[in-house]
Amino acid sequence: MPGRLRRGWTCAHLRITLRPMPHDHHDDHPHALLPPEPALRVKALETILARKGLIDPAALDEIIDTYQNRIGPKNGAMVVARAWTDPEFRARLLENATAVVADLGFFGRQGEHVVAVENTPEVHNMVVCTLCSCYPWPLLGIPPAWYKSDAYRSRAVREPRKVLAEFGVTLPPETAVRVWDSTAEVRYLVIPMRPDGTEGLDVEQLAALVTRDSMVGTGLPKAPA
User: Fold this and answer.
1) Is residue 8's pLDDT more than 50?
2) Residue 129 annotated among the catalytic residues of the structure
3) DSSP annotation of 200
4) Is residue 133 flagged as an active site residue?
5) Catalytic residue among 11, 134, 149, 154
6) Longest C-alpha distance within the chain, in Å?
7) Which of 159, 169, 196, 211 is the most exposed, having the fewest neighbouring CB atoms within 10 Å of its CB?
8) Cα atoms in the 13 Å half-sphere on the side-chain side of 61
């Protein structure tokens, strides 16, 4: 998806601009002028707002660059790696992730209240936002296009195992799948299981194995080289 389409719209923006609107089917209705594809609708709305002087495209580009390239999922990966190596930190993270990640400097917009959930051999956690695209930006950066798609948002809660299989994650039958629905008030960070064969790696080396998808629950960490 082109960078200009991945705007950091808030949940409120998305609910207002992308929610299907009832209309009387007249061709001159304003909403009839918007393309049906959500990403294209966002771009069309962005263009309109920019022309009216309500937003600054350069400022939006700076926000996107910050979250996508300078932050991205690196912060979350460091949190996970530390949880793998520090039992006390892991316990505090699972008890009150908001306070723990704030102490590390990971807070702010879209990260006001974070809950950490841990994968185990018995339970695999998976995160979705069924209403829009609530996502812990300070930890994971901007949500990927698939996370915001209607298909993922609806299917993740109905058929999570099938969705996981499409992402390449096949779980043992005895492993339960728990789906967490993010909201404007609560966002989730999945702590994936530490890969085997990583006992001698330090925190930075471990962080390099943590993928964005593994912290959403739709992927697994990389295996050590």
Assistant:
1) no
2) yes
3) T
4) yes
5) 134
6) 66
7) 196
8) 6
Given 132, 149, 154, 214, the catalytic residue: 132
HSE (CB half, 13 Å, CA atoms) of 22? 0
Alpha-carbon gap, residue 165 to 175, rounded angstroms: 14
- Rounded to whole angstroms, the Cα distance separating 222 from 181 reads 25
Asked whether residue 24 carries a pLDDT value surpassing 50, the answer given is no
Catalytic residue from among 133, 149, 182, 214? 133
Better-predicted residue by pLDDT, 17 or 130: 130
The β-bridge partners of 118 are: 191
Query: pLDDT tens for residues 29-60?
Result: 333 444 456 667 777 877 888 888 887 878 77
Share of the chain above pLDDT 70, in %: 76
The total number of residues written for the chain in this structure = 225
11 is catalytic: no
Token look-up 């929610």 returns 19
Domains, the chain, ordered by start: 9-55 (no CATH), 72-216 (3.90.330.10)
Q: Is 182 a catalytic residue?
A: no
